[in-house]
Amino acid sequence: xxxxxxxxxxxxxxxxxxxxxxxxxxxxxxxxxxxxxxxxxxxxxxxxxxxxxxxxxxxxxxxxxxxxxxxxxxxxxxxxxxxxxxxxxxxxxxxxxxxxxxxxxxxxxxxxxxxxxxxxxxxxxxxxxxxxxxxxxxxxxxxxxxxxxxxxxxxxxxxxxxxxxxxxxxxxxxxxxxxxxxxxxxxxxxxxxxxxxxxxxxxxxxxxxxxxxxxxxxxxxxxxxxxxxxxxxxxxxxxxxxxx
Length: 244
Description:
By secondary structure, the chain is of the alpha+beta class. The protein is built from 5 helices and 10 strands; from the N terminus they run βββββαββαβββααα.
């Protein structure tokens, strides 16, 4: 009897039934899943799904979509409201590098896959590994599908206060996972200016920084207005903290 890893036998990650995901979906009466084909399985999974879809005019059509399943993730923006600072990372991202980013070194909020953990536990883990910070209370900002045309991932967004005393490690990520992460502590006005001038191009990071300016810990502090006016604080010495 022939067995196929990932289907009826465990693959290298112990997974089976990878071709059955989505077959039992019935929450939308206008969508009927007909077939799920596993087209690639590495660390993550690529599937081709065939389904019938009822259009708004009532006609049924058959469509196919490929979905990339890498699991769900969590991301956090640690902030120090008193000192007007945020913690971000810089690391090499080959997909960005191969798609016209100048050097592939992206400035980002710390994030990671859940890997079976609850979002809160996962983001505390990632914050310790990447940033070397022990987070206190976490604020849930929102959940979002980051690339719903092809990627299944749902990302859980958080923010958390920190102080210098909470930086209990060096961060940098896990070398055994190929990570080489630089920790950046930036004035919030500088981080926001980096969004406006293109030095920050990562979607999840842009969303969290804009939230922090509009509805979060820096709302009403005038930071966004200074950044919009072109105040690019290159160092802490150049930045004059606002008062809430």
